[in-house]
Design brief:
Structural class: mainly alpha
Number of domains: 1
Shape: globular
Distance between the termini: 24 Å
Number of strands: 2
Number of helices: 5
Helix content: over 70%
């Protein structure tokens, strides 16, 4: 059930970002659901490999290079997913930043609560 809730919240986060960032478009809820699934898959596979490969550059830039990697992963997902498009690197970059903030807010609001102690 937790994965389903995370997937739905990721789709809602994409819709929020599409509403706020010019050049970041999601055509509807079904496109957002598919795009959220695809963004998660791309980040878990290719994104993970790129983050490991670029770790030295990320350390030098104090983590800021990961924002560029995230933008590239969003652009890749937008190239594959129907109904999800990003018009260039700028909207992908700012969309990635806002998407991270929205996901962090959702995690703090709906994240796992500590288990009750007996």
């Amino acid at each position: 059930m937790s994965m389903l809730a995370h997937w739905l919240l990721s789709a809602v986060a994409l819709m929020i970002v599409a509403y706020v960032v010019p050049g970041f478009h999601v055509s509807g809820i079904m496109a957002a659901l598919f795009a959220a699934l695809l963004v998660g898959f791309v980040n878990a596979t290719l994104g993970l490999v790129l983050k490991v490969i670029t770790l030295p550059l990320t350390v030098i830039t104090l983590g800021l290079f990961w924002l560029i990697v995230n933008a590239l992963m969003l652009l890749l997902a937008a190239a594959i997913a129907p109904g999800f498009s990003i018009e260039g690197f700028g909207p992908a970059f700012w969309g990635g930043v806002l998407l991270s903030l929205v996901n962090a807010a959702f995690t703090s609001l709906f994240g796992k609560k500590p288990a009750a102690k007996p």
